[in-house]
TrEMBL record:
The keyword rRNA processing does not apply. GO terms for molecular function: inositol monophosphate 1-phosphatase activity; metal ion binding. PANTHER family: INOSITOL MONOPHOSPHATASE (PTHR20854), INOSITOL-1-MONOPHOSPHATASE-RELATED (PTHR20854:SF4). Mg(2+) binds at residues 67, 83, 86, 217. The keyword Magnesium applies. PROSITE patterns: IMP_1. This is Myo-inositol-1(Or 4)-monophosphatase. Its cofactor is Mg(2+).
Length: 264
């Protein structure tokens, strides 16, 4: 099967899941807390059910890992990594900055390599897609990272406070914010990795710093940013491994080394 055909299928899944989530947003019912700082809604589970169902039907041999269900199937060279609703806190409060993330990665001896990325932002009416080596597109139009080459003119986003192991993460975020604010024009905090990654890919942001990530947070946006001409690495400048707890930096590429320097 051609990569373009797989991408079109993943887009259709993301559209179906996005339409479902939008329809459910007005009558979510009770919102559950996975931990004292993180929420999950019925829409997360329904979006996940839709996407997993399609993968199991169309690519039964492929591995699947999602935020809510975890490892659904393992052992394949090809693995789908899914965040059914990224930015659930935003979603649950009617803030349109949330999205659905689907990535297909190839597991090699050198590590996991994203080869297809689909990020649907239903609240903004935008669909971002990328295939390895073919560029990044938003609603079918080619997009590119920014050309800002002066760090003092840069706009950077930094992940939310109060998530996960919040005491440790917030301490690191405070250091990051301070350094970023001293060197850049603005520091934003949008509360959704797929929003921040997509905004970096389309040149609205010059960088996005994520103090702690999981594969479903970053697998798709890493490919979006790189195929748009940018760069995605760990804080030490090495390639992303798409492992739990990874610190990730996404940028327009031009400012990447400078961002790494101020994050030290």
């Amino acid at each position: 099967m051609q990569v373009d055909d797989i991408l079109q299928r993943a887009q259709s899944w993301a559209n179906e899941a996005g339409a479902s989530a939008l329809a459910m947003q007005k009558h979510l019912g009770s919102i559950k807390f996975k931990n004292p700082k993180d929420v999950v809604t019925a829409a997360d589970f329904e979006s996940e059910r839709i996407i997993i169902g399609h993968i199991q039907n169309e690519f039964p041999e492929h591995s699947i890992r999602t935020e809510e269900a975890g490892h659904v199937k393992e052992g394949s060279r090809y693995e789908w990594i899914i965040d059914p609703v990224d930015g659930t806190v935003n979603f649950s409060r009617g803030i349109p900055l949330w999205g659905i993330s689907i990535a297909l990665v190839e597991n090699t001896e050198a590590g996991a390599k994203p080869i297809i990325a689909v990020v649907n932002l239903p609240g903004l009416g935008k669909m971002f897609t990328a295939c390895k080596g073919s560029g990044t597109f938003a609603n079918g139009e080619h997009v590119h990272v920014s050309m800002v080459d002066d760090l003092t003119k840069a706009i950077v986003s930094n992940g939310d406070f109060n998530v996960g192991d919040w005491e440790k993460i917030n301490a690191q975020n405070l250091k990051n914010f301070k350094s970023e604010a001293e060197h850049c024009t603005r520091v934003k905090c949008y509360g959704s990795a797929v929003i921040e990654g997509a905004f970096t890919a389309q040149g609205s942001l010059d960088g996005f710093v994520m103090t702690m990530s999981y594969p479903w947070d970053i697998a798709a946006i890493a490919l979006l940013v790189e195929e748009a001409g940018g760069k995605a690495t760990r804080f030490d400048g090495k390639p992303l491994r798409f492992e739990d707890g990874e610190q990730a930096l996404f940028s327009n590429g031009i400012l990447h080394d400078q961002f790494l320097q101020i994050l030290k």
